[in-house]
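Dear colleagues,

As part of the handover before I leave the project, I'm documenting each prediction I ran so the next person doesn't have to rerun anything. This entry is a single chain, and its sequence is reproduced below.
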Amino acid sequence: MPAKAPRTAADIHIAIICALPLEATAVQGILDADHKHIRPDPADDNSYTVGSIGEHHVVVVHLSGVAGVPDATAAEQIKSSFPDIRLALVSGICGAVPRYTAPFEAKERYIHLGDLVISTLLVQVDTGIETDSRLDGSDWAEDNLDRPSRLIDSLLAKLQTKRHRSELAQEVSKMLHILGRQDEDCIYPGYKSDILFKSSYMHKHQAAAGCKKCQSGKLESCEKARLTLCTQLGCSLAASEIRPARPSLDGNGMYQPDVHLGRISTGHRVIRSAVYRDSLAETLGVCAFEMGGGNAWGLYPCLVIKGVSDYADSHKSYQWQLYAAAVAAAGLKVLLLDHWLDQSLSPP
C-alpha cells in the first residue's frame, strides 16, 4: 500500500545514507514515490532525495565528504533538517573477506561478488591506506561502535535463522529480476567474471608494458592500472583461487545472492591490498570493509546493508560496483517492506 505524502520533514523517519553517487542512484531506483515538496534546513549543506518505500517515508542522504565519508558535522545536519529520524540505513557497496566464520554458525562461509552483507557490529578502523605497500598495521585502531537499538537486535536475531535468511535471499533475487527489466546495471554480471586472485597477486601492468611503478617489486600499482580491467591488464587466471561451488540459482533460474551477517569494518580509505585485508580480517574478525557507516551509527539506530563489489583487493570492477549497489538497494527495500512495520518506528 503506498504511503500518504508526508506533510513536513518531521514525517520522515528513515534516513538512507549513501557514500557514493552510484549507491544513491541504486536507491533512487527502488523508491515508490518522490516527495520534492519537502525541503531541508537552509543552513544544511547536505543534499537529499525524499521519497517513500511502501508505507515508509525515507530520505536519501547524498554525501559529499572526503571519499564520500560523512564527517560529524554532516551527520548532525541531517538532524537539523529531519528532526524525527528513528532509523538509519547505510546502503551501498563493500569489499568482502572471501572466507569468514559466522559467529552464530561456528563454521566457515564463502562470500562471492554480488552477495548481500548486513552488519551485526561496526568496527571503526582508521586505515590511512592510500597505496598497496603500507601493510604494517601501524596506522589503524579498532573501536567497536555500539548499536543502541533493541529493534535492530531483534531483526538480526531473526535473520540469523536459516529460514529467514533464505527467504530474504529469495525476495532479493525477485526484486533484482524486476529491477533488471528497467536497468541493465541490475543484471548479474556472470560468474565467469567473479574471480578471486591469490592474496599476493597484484592488479598491475605486466613486464611487457614497461611501467616502472608496477614493476618496482613493491605491493603497489600505478593509477592507470587501477582504472584498467583485469582482462585488459592480462591478470592471469592461473593466479586465481579455486573455491567450492555453491548453488546460485533460485527456482526460476535467476541468480540468487547469498546473505551474510557479520562484523563490518568502516574507515576512510578503500582497502586495495589482499594481504592487508587478510591481516585485518584475522585481527578484527570482520567479513567486509565499507565507508560511510561510522558517524551514522553513533547518531541513530543503524544498520549497514552492502552488496559485495570486490574482495577488498586491487582487482576492482565498475560493473560489479553497479550490480552490488543494486543488490544492497534491493535488500534494503525487502527489509523495509517485509520486516519493518510503522509501529516499529514509533517514538520511545
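The radius of gyration is 20 Å. Residues 318-339 form the longest helix (22 residues).

All the best with the project,
I.
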